[in-house]
Amino acid sequence: MSLDTHEVAETAPPVPAVAAAKAELPRTRLGLRRRREGSGASREPDTVPYALRGTRRGKALRGVLLGVVALATIFPFYAMVVLSLKPSGAVEFPGSLLPWHLTTSAYRDVLGSQDVPQWLINTLIYSIVGVLGTLLLSALAGYAFAKKRFPGREAMFWSFLSMVMVPYHVTMIPTFVLIAKMNGVDTYWGLILPSLANAQAVFLMRQFIQGLPDELFEAAKIDGASEFQIFVRIVLPLIKPIMATLGTFVFLWHWNDFLWPLIVGQSTDMRTLTVGIASLQQQNVPLNVVLAGSVVAFVPIFMAYLVGQRYVTEGVAATGIKG
Known about the structure:
With 323 residues, the protein is mainly alpha-helical. It has helices at 2-11, 15-47, 56-84, 105-112, 115-147, 153-161, 168-181, 188-192, 199-210, 214-222, 227-238, 240-256, 259-264, 273-280, 287-321. Helix 5 (115-147) crosses helix 9 (199-210) and helix 12 (240-256) packs antiparallel against helix 15 (287-321). The chain is globular.
C-alpha cells in the first residue's frame, strides 16, 4: 500500500502546476478568439461601407445621410403648405418659402366655394363605397378560390389573375363604352362599379385565406354552420389584418384616381377633388388657392394612412409569415 501510494504521489503533478494549466487554457482560447476577431475586423473595411459600420463616425455619417433623405422627402410638402398660406402674387425663391407673412385667405376661398365641398363629397363616396365593395367581393372570391373545390377553379383563378398583366388604359375605352350604353355616365354607380373587380385584391385574399387551417372549417361544418355563417364568423375575423392593409391601399388608389373620374364625371358636380383641382389651373386661379385645395385633398389620405399604418404593418408581416 505504501509503494502504490508513493508511485501515485510521484506521477501526479503538483497542485500549482494543474492550476497554472487550467489558467493557461482560457488565455489560449481568448487569444485565438481575439486573433479571429482581429482578422475579421481587418477584412471589414474592404466589404462593409463606411456609413454602415458600427463606429461612431459610421453612425454619424448614417444619421447625416438619413437626415438629408428625410429633408428631401418632406420639402415638397413643406413648400406646398407654406405657399398655400402666402398671399396671392408672384412666387420668389427662396423668399416665398420662408414662414413669414402667412394668411389663410386661400383656404377661405377654397372652403367657401360651392364646388370644392361637392368635390370632396364625391371623392368620399367614391373612395368609401369603392373600398367596401372591393373588400367584400375580394374576400368572397378569395375564400371561394382558397377553400372551395369546384371544376375549373384553377383555370378560372389564373384567368382572372391574368388581368393584372393587361394595362389599365387598354380596358378603359371598352369599359367607358359599356358604362355609356348602360347610362352610367355622370352617375355614382358608373364611377364606382368598374373599380370593384380588383385582381390584386383577390389574389392577396386568396393567398391569406389559403394559409388558414382547414380544421376550423371542418369543425364549423360538423357543428352545422352554413357557408354564410362560416364566412362571417370565421373567415372575416381572421382576415382583419389583410383587410385593413387592402382597405388602406384601395382607399389611397380611389382618392388619388384621376383618369377614370375625369372620363366618367363630365359635369362639374360629378368631379372628384383630383379632377377639380386640376381644372382650377385652367381657370387662371392663383397658385396659393390651387395649393390650398391640394392640402385639403391631402389631409384625409394622410389621416387614413396614420390610422391604418399599424394594420398595414401587421398585415404585411402576417402575409410574409404565412408564405
